Automatic annotation (TrEMBL):
This is D-3-phosphoglycerate dehydrogenase. Its EC number is 1.1.1.95. The lineage of its organism: Bacteria, Pseudomonadati, Pseudomonadota, Alphaproteobacteria, Sphingomonadales. Belongs to the D-isomer specific 2-hydroxyacid dehydrogenase family. It comes from the Bacteria. It comes from Qipengyuania qiaonensis. Residues 6-314 form the D-isomer specific 2-hydroxyacid dehydrogenase catalytic domain. The gene is serA. One of its GO terms (molecular function) is phosphoglycerate dehydrogenase activity. Catalyzes the reversible oxidation of 3-phospho-D-glycerate to 3-phosphonooxypyruvate, the first step of the phosphorylated L-serine biosynthesis pathway. Also catalyzes the reversible oxidation of 2-hydroxyglutarate to 2-oxoglutarate.
Amino acid sequence: MTKPKVLISDKMDPNAAKIFEERGCDVDVITGETPEELKARIGEYDGLAIRSSTKVTSEILDAATNLKVIGRAGIGVDNVDIPYASGKGVVVMNTPFGNSITTAEHAIAMMFALARQIPAANTRTQAGEWPKNDFMGVEVTGKTLGLIGAGNIGSIVAARALGLRMKVVAYDPFLTEERAIEMGVEKADLDTLLSRADFITLHTPLTDETRNILSRENLAKTKPGVRIVNCARGGLIDEAALADALDSGQVAGAALDVFQTEPAKESPLFGKSNFICTPHLGASTTEAQVNVALQVAEQMADYLVNGGVTNALNMPSLSAEEAPKLKPYMTLAENLGSLVGQLAHGNLTKISIEREGAAAELSGKPIEGAVLAGLMRQYSDTVNMVNAPFLAKERGLDIRSVRHEKEGTYNTLIRVTVGTEQGDRSVAGTLFGTDAPRLVEMFGVGIEAELAGDMLYIVNLDAPGFIGRIGTLLGENGINIGTFHLGRRQAGGEAVLLLSVDAPIPQDVVKQACALEGVKVVMPLAF
Ligand SMILES: NC(=O)C1=CN([C@@H]2O[C@H](COP(=O)(O)OP(=O)(O)OC[C@H]3O[C@@H](n4cnc5c(N)ncnc54)[C@H](O)[C@@H]3O)[C@@H](O)[C@H]2O)C=CC1
Ligand SMILES: O=C(O)CCC(=O)C(=O)O
């Protein structure tokens, strides 16, 4: 088996490359390339490990013909076009906790730097001025910290602030009263927070709702003399409005680690005496960088080598232990999806995926993804279990997933039912032993078959002589039959025949089979 190939395209702790190699991947570390250079190179790689500098745009993704996974050594993934990556079937992962403490500490450091004007005092002291009378600071003890965003980093900042004897007021639409009590913070709406906070610190992702959350209008609602820290994302604050608020004194000080445009080479904020900044250093500690580098490499290698999925933003998680157990189910699920997709001629409105017995104990999402991948392969060559659910939803398919704990005739079973213009059509399959996928039912008829390679599906009237006739026809046309599977509703009624053949069946042979006496349906299938 060829080794998966990974590109590390941003500066990352060397442990990442080591882990990739130890886990069976080939790895190249090539940082600082232009988008054109990356575009020319990316086609070779199965994995791309990044921090925040590499922008994974739709153009890069179009050129990434082998790419299976993007790993962000960090939290924010706003530098990756996730919907486009999902559409291309590329898993996007991050490391949601590895740099949280470090970033929270940076926010606290920025708050102290603002309160005591440390950067300016340092510069002037080192210039030989000894400006003791120019730097009257403020205490943080007893002050109110307004926390916008109370997730991982926000919670750590809150805990540190409480340790500093500050009061913490938090605005986060997803923060429950119970969690606020557990954190020791007061839950508030945004206007209340703005009017009460002596310090404001932001810890939300950049979304349509949070963009410009500190707009000119909202900055005007702040308590006069507030100090603001942003170590989350540029774009959360209107930078021009903030510069004006610093000039007017409405805002006494601001500390930014992140800017609307990065790298920030110019800004209306630069040069103001009450403004301090760092070049997106929130996550830059040795500890955090080792954490995220190790974690991203482990997660990506696990996916590329074993199929394990951890911390993916566009796919459900799947542990490395569960991945091998699921593997035969994924084959079965994909084949069942492919079977109904080929038989239903594309006019599908809904699909239901049922799991019974042992299959009900497994994660449903990967099985659902595999069924949909098999189904959607009729429409797209590039479909896989990552993008199939998105493509299916785009086509308006109504998807239901059902789990039955009780065992039926089989101790494990997956049933796929699709709604077509002709009514519901259902197929079901099981595993023989622990790893041999088998079809066991087709449109209500019991039939046992392995779904593999080229096959021929025939519905005919159950009558003597038919099997001989079809065998002769295929033989006369030089088509060798590999396996032969029969099922019927009742003697003399409708019978189903599923043959595996050694080569694709030409159209004219299909026509001749259709003309045989008693034949209702003939359809070549491929798995
Ligand atoms: N400066 C740096 O180097 C670093 C920056 N970050 C950034 O910090 C931010 C926060 O990271 P985490 O705490 O790990 O994320 P998280 O996902 O754990 O927390 C984000 C919180 O924001 C809240 N939120 C979402 N929409 C909101 C809204 N409209 N108003 C108020 N709150 C809202 C969410 O409910 C959630 O609790 C992210 O943008 C991340 O990219 C993270 C690490 C390093
Ligand atoms: O990788 C970095 O230095 C930036 C970290 C960051 O912004 C994040 O993890 O969201």
